């Protein structure tokens, strides 16, 4: 049975900090639900009701477009090692771009990866614990380096060109937050 909380508990904090992967789900008012895996040491707990994650350039910019439209976001963690457990953060998100006044302070919390695009800040309204009996066990072998290496090869201008070509509309035609292209 699921248990709900008003903020991130100490036990949930421990689970979050042990994970190598998490999943982010958003949806526009009408259109496709987007669900994305995230990793690479990109999530930080800022307080009992706030987290942030570093958003690296990808094939689309769905989360930004959805947050701009309605702010709804869910983050899910699954224990792939140890006792079975699933934990969700339900909240409202906003995007910090590289031209925002908060950028330098927030970016300093994360690794400096080529292709860094935005920082998503989530005000957590509720958390949920549930069993993870159906989640398989996996052994963590390491982070992939293809994404970072690819953006490194393209360089800053190549990344910005990619943003202009591929990250200016969501798959449902919504506008994400303007990138600093």
Q: If you had to describe this structure to a student in words, what would you say it looks like?
A:
The protein is of the alpha+beta class and 181 residues long. The protein has one domain (3-135, 143-166): Pnp Oxidase, Chain A (Roll). Helix content is 24%, strand content 32%. It has four helices and eight strands, in the order βαββββαββαβα. It has helices spanning 10-18, 62-69, 103-107, 146-166; strands at 3-5, 22-26, 34-38, 43-47, 50-56, 72-78, 86-96, 116-130. Strands 1, 2, 3, 4, 5, 6, 7 and 8 form an eight-stranded antiparallel beta sheet that branches. Strand 6 (72-78) and strand 7 form a beta hairpin. The longest helix has 21 residues, at 146-166. It is globular and about 45 Å long.
Beta-strand content estimate: 25-35%
Specify the number of helices. 4
CATH topology tier name:
Pnp Oxidase, Chain A
Helix percent reads 10-25%
> How would a crystallographer describe the biggest sheet?
8 strands, antiparallel
Q: From the alpha-carbon coordinates, what is the Rg to the nearest angstrom?
A: 16 Å
Name of the CATH first level = Mainly Beta
| Mean pLDDT value | 96
Terminal Cα span:
46 Å
The number of domains is 1
Q: Which sequence of SSEs, written as H and E, runs from N to C?
A: EHEEEEHEEHEH
The CATH architecture assignment turns out to be: Roll
Number of strands: 8
Structural class: alpha+beta
Low-confidence stretches: none
Shape: globular
| The CATH superfamily title | Electron Transport, Fmn-binding Protein, Chain A
